[in-house]
Amino acid sequence: TAVSWDYSDETLPGPATESKDWSELSSGERAAATVLCYFGEIWDDIPITEWYDYEEGVNTAVSLYGPMPQDIDMSIFRRGNAV
């Protein structure tokens, strides 16, 4: 609801996934998080200094040319399925 989105009522519980680590999310939950530009390091609040190489200017957590993650249900990215 709108109330839960703007946090105007702090007594409302957050989504069940909010308290989960990345490793505890289902492959579908990981895919949904990925659609929202989350990946494990961001989801788990790992400091950017631990997964970004400032000297090279590259993200070391996710590689544009690396293998596709096996722990994410990538079918959500098929045409018409992404939110």
List the helices and strands and how they pair.
Blueprint: H1 2-5, H2 27-35, H3 40-43, E1 52-53, E2 58-59
Antiparallel strand pairs: 1-2
How would you describe this protein?
With 83 residues, the chain is mostly helical. It is built from 3 helices and 2 strands, in the order H-H-H-E-E. A two-stranded antiparallel ribbon has the order 1-2. The longest helix has 9 residues, at 27-35. The radius of gyration is 15 Å and the shape is globular. The two termini are 18 Å apart. 6% of the residues are buried. The mean pLDDT is 77.
Helix/strand structural class: mainly alpha
* Largest β sheet strand count, sense and barrel closure: 2 strands, antiparallel
Quaternary assembly: single chain
What Rg is obtained from the alpha carbons, in whole angstroms? 15 Å
Helix content: 10-25%
Instruction: State the low-pLDDT regions, or none.
Output: none
Number of helices: 3
Strand content: under 5%
In short:
This protein is mostly helical and 83 residues long. 20% of the residues lie in helices and 5% in strands. A hairpin with a 4-residue loop joins strand 1 and strand 2.
Attribute tags:
single chain, 83 residues, mainly alpha, two-stranded antiparallel sheet, 2 strands
